[in-house]
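Data availability (excerpt). The following record was deposited with the supplementary files.
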Amino acid sequence: NQDITNIGEQLKVETVLEGSVRKAGPRVRIVAQLISVDDGYHMWSQTYDRDLTDIFAVQDEISAAIVDALKLHLSAGEAPSAQQPVNIDAYNLYLQGRHNVRQRDPNSLEFALKQFQQAIDMDPDYSQPWAGMSLATQLLREDSYGTIPGPESDRLAQGYLDKAFALNPELGEAHAAQALLYNVQGRCEESLQSLDKALVQLPAEGILYTWQSFCLNSLGKYDAAREAVNRGFEVDPLHRSVRVNWIQQQVDDRKFDRIRKSVAEGTREYYIAEFFIAGAEGRRADQHRLMEEADKVQGRELNAFYRDLVRFLWLGETDLPVGTFPTHFEDVFAAARAPDVAASALLELDSQALSREQLHILAIALVALDRCGDLLPKLAGMNFEQLDQFGDLDDGDSDFGLGSYYAHCLRETGETARAEQLAQKLLAYFDRAVANGLPIRSWDDLRAHLLVILNRGDEAVASLREVYEHNALTPVRVAAFSRLFAGSLKENTDFRQLCQEMEATMNVERAKLGMPATTLAELL
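Predicted structure:
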């Protein structure tokens, strides 16, 4: 019930289409009208009474009438053509499932799977729900919103896509889901090609531009990735994931006023925006309070996730219950805290069958146990010393992260020259990424680790301090760095001073919430 002028300003459009849909038995009445934002003039209106046997044909008829009313010319010079008729109940279930996918929380995604399956049961030849099954399955991976192991998720998702493509080789939703699957498999060139095909059919799906940005980040094209995020927000500003990625980008640029003008107070996006802003300013207690308030106002699971995340990463509450975070996130931390358990479980498996996520966990565990000699053979097949492309620096499971462990272990086993050569290559890759727009919140201890391998301890501490002074270095990360990589750096006066400052900052924020003081050493 917002004023049309306000809606036009929020969406940055000159005209607004509004209307209603009423259903009575097998009949539907659709009323549509176009309104000019500037003066409220009704440019066009029409009422459609139709049977529900072919809803796509009705949609296409309305679309063509609106195009004609706006006097636009489609690039193909033709009106939209109707899709294959489907069971109307299956269509409704598909729409509901798609809505639940956009919510991006585990319960909604599980519900979406059931709705897509129900649609398929009603109409097995309806291609869109098959693509929906693939997308929801991918989002329920253990390193995303769910608990499905990566290889199992990939297998299921591709099977659903094979069915969707068999029914409709040009289906935009299938090309979109295929692009996301290629992305998580590290096949970014193929992912971008699939996204191009998807955007031909779905040019207003903003999330596709967000996925483009993921791939461009993986290729080190951070400026192009930023453009993709902005484009997604332009075409689909109300998609939750699109908005969140855009908000994070604006926070990186410290455009706080612009963000606040784009969200309405009390909405979910308002709390997320203020959460990100508070984080950029180092106000961790305020982040916690914001999510507590959001829980009371909205009772959403995502708010609890953000609250627990700040408790864990920034406030040192590392004893949260199992199941608080996605499985992979918890497994990474467990590998640093109980490396013997993690290592023994993974070493029993065939190294060729280990996923990238599992290799990352194994690397943490073996380095923590000072067993670099056991890790090098597990990673040797990845040929880091011959690579020039190391993936997204913001992804802990990328080739960059694993390559850093490999260089570390080369040094620890006496292969100093090889270690330094690889570390230099990784450092140059990192510096190019920064020059191309990698935000400092993504630096963590990555650069410092390479500098330690190169025996440039003072520069390593300076790099850590730079990230800390930008409120982007977490106490948990420093505790892990100190345990895994610091070595002789632990005797460095500047490093010890930095750890003391970080500990003090953490405890100041803890005190604001009534939490007792703790130490970095107690976090692991």
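Summary of structural features: Confidence is low (pLDDT under 50) at residues 72-82.
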